Amino acid sequence: MTFRMVARVRGRLDAEFTVAPGETVAILGPNGSGKSTLLAAAAGLVKPDAGSASLGGRVLFERDGGRQDWVPPHRRGVALLAQEALLFPHLSVLDNVAFAPRSAGGAKAKSRETARRWLSDVGALDLAGRRPGQLSGGQAQRVAVARALAADPELLLLDEPMAALDIHAAPHLRRLLKRVLAGRSAVIVTHDVLDALMLADRIVVLEKGRIVEEGPVREVLARPRSAFAAGLAGLNLLSGTVTAEGLLVSGAGAAGGQAVSGTPDGEALAGEPGVAAFPPSAVSVFLERPHGSPRNCLPLVISELEPHAGGIRVRAGELAADITPAASAELGLEPGMQVFFVVKSAEVQVYGA
Amino acid sequence: MNPPLNASQDGGGHGYSGVPRWLYLPAAVGALFVLLPLVAMLAKVNWGQFIPLVTSAASLDALGLSLRTSAASTVLCLVFGVPLAMVLARRPFRGQRLLRAFVLLPLVLPPVVGGIALLYTFGRQGLLGKSLELAGVQIAFSTTAVVLAQAFVALPFLVVSLEGALRSAGNKYEAIAATLGAPPTTVLRRVTLPLVVPGLVSGAVLSFARSLGEFGATLTFAGSLQGVTRTLPLEIYLQRESDADAAVALSLLLVAVAVAVVGLSYRKPARQVAA
Fold first, then answer.
1. For residue B184, what is the nearest residue in chain A, using CA coordinates?
2. How far is B186 from chain A, CA to nearest CA, in Å?
């Protein structure tokens, strides 16, 4: 089933979006970028001002001037798994999972049988007789997964399903989702690059309601084109114009107007917009401009120092350098200091934006 | 003054309460203000005559009528109050605030005014009464009128308490239920109403209690005919003129019924909160 949606919600969302049959798409973006609104529009919980959506050829909504079609949530075949498990507190775990088969008109006994099957599939059959109030967060979310799957949805929407779990429960649920999402059309909103890596085939980056970048997970993380994706991939990203030698950085950022030398890939043509990416670990920090005129030496002011994976991350505007604590102590770094970020040309990837 | 102060520090949990000590004084005065009149009435009861007084034919008629009409009016409040509360709590629409204000009006209206309004609606010359009269239905000064008068004053209690429960329950569960394929009526039956059962019960209890105590609107709209429209409060008022002992005894009976109803069903139900 292909899911296709164009949705405009004033001030919140303006995006066109497709999920191929059996594909899992991860939506990433800063807070307030419209991720949840996109899911709500697909589920039928928010009415977009304009746009249309279809699932496997069925129209879900059509709001374009004259045509006003609207399929209510319960007839969409789109299930939603939210950040909170939201198990119905007055029903047992078994009846929670049996809720969708019952709503579809199934007999009580048969629906419970279906529910048992799904509970055992998520490894929660032993919880069947409990009340939702007696479950841990991880258990409740596993039951919620079973409840959503029992609805036999053609599209499964997941809104940060791991966000409310503690660090011990999250990996367990992630493994479960990896198994159940295989071969299903699904959209998962997440903050965590690990979710995208493990669960998704494709990444969509949303900023201020618009899609700023999308592509296969590996490609987006290897060659990010947006600041948000670069942050996810743990890379420094500068954007500007491709030159024969590298990139002329544009914008008013700390490195604006500087020429960066790097290794352009075959496709980046001089004069076209492009980006330069390099890992913070490839950056060395100096107090004085180093001798021997290295190719990339950016004069910057330290904005912050923070611990990072056993070392120190030196932030200067949108750029970061990772150094050892010993090096930091020797240099006597502190916020507000003027320093030089030096990075070898070979470490800088330049590619078209 | 010491016992309540000590109780505040020693009893009930060890957390910070945020209640300044001096607050216990006005609180105690408020509690006494409610309790003292009941004690005063209790002191006036002629215990020797109590049983014969409350089991007289007139008293039993009045008590039976009160219980029956209050039950009927509570059912009426549920049938119309639940949909009203849903409409007010869930979707904003034009004129919603105005509708809410009018639904709540009987809370602040003198009941006698409500009775007059009902008379001009369902009375012989009333707005609907004229047509009903032609159809052979007479409502004013009948037991039906008692039920309507009680429902009129009791409806806001149910609507207010249920609307509050619906709002605090939110509609997250309802949205999830819809994405699981449940049509709106199924969502109402299997999710919305079960979630607000505590609010529904307390609303129904308040409505029943208010119906039980209804006096002004009943007298105006239904009159005071023994066995037909003379409910317990009306009987008490009538007896007060002729037989003060009987009035006090019946008052105590009404207090007992009210305490029993509220005490039995107004207990805080065990809440099940989702993890």
1. A74
2. 7
Note whether B175 contacts A: Cβ–Cβ < 8 A: yes
Identify the CATH homologous superfamily for domain A3-222: P-loop containing nucleotide triphosphate hydrolases (3.40.50.300)
pLDDT in tens, B131-180: 888 888 888 899 999 999 999 999 999 999 999 999 998 899 999 999 99
User: What is the rounded distance in angstroms from the CA atom of residue A114 to the CA atom of residue A157?
Assistant: 21
B270 in reach of chain A (CB within 8 A)? no
C-alpha span between A78 and A148 (Å, rounded): 9
What's the N-to-C CA distance of chain B in angstroms?
42
Residue at A294: amino acid letter:
P
What class is the A234-352 domain?
A: mainly beta
Inter-residue contact A154 to A55 (CB < 8 Å): yes
Chain B within 8 Å of A156 (Cβ-Cβ)? no
- In terms of Cα–Cα distance, which of A302, A304, A293 is closest to A339? A302
Highest-confidence segment of A91-95, A181-185, A284-288: A91-95
End-to-end CA distance of chain A: 31
d(CA A336, CA A96): 56
Tokens of B9: 């520090």
Residue B48 exposure: Cα atoms within 13 Å on the Cβ side:
0
Interface contact flag, B275 A132, Cβ < 8 Å:
yes
Domains of chain B: 50-265 (1.10.3720.10)
What B195-198 contacts at long range (C-beta under 8 Å, 24+ apart), as own/partner pairs, is: B195/A88, B195/A89, B195/A90, B195/B169, B196/B162, B196/B165, B196/B166, B196/B169, B197/A90, B197/B269, B198/B165, B198/B268, B198/B269, B198/B271
Give yes or no for a contact between A235 and A278, defined as CB atoms under 8 angstroms apart. yes
What's the pLDDT tens digit per position in A110-132? Answer: 999 999 999 999 999 999 999 99
Q: Among residues of chain A, what percentage have pLDDT more than 90? A: 54
Neighboring chain A residues of B274 at a CB cutoff of 8 Å: 84-87, 89, 132-133, 140
Q: Find out whether A144 and A81 touch, Cβ atoms under 8 Å.
A: yes
Angstroms from B153 CA to nearest CA on chain A: 32
How many CB atoms neighbour CB B242 within 10 A?
8
CB atoms within 10 A of CB A289: 11
Cβ <8 Å between B173 and A86: yes
Closest CA to A122 of A71, A166, A181, A167: A181
| Pairwise CA distance, residues A2 & A290, whole Å | 56
Angle at which helices B143-169 and B57-90 cross, to 10° = 40
Yes or no: say if B237 and B180 are a contact pair by the CB < 8 Å rule.
no
Can you give the residue ranges of every domain in chain A?
Answer: 3-222, 234-352
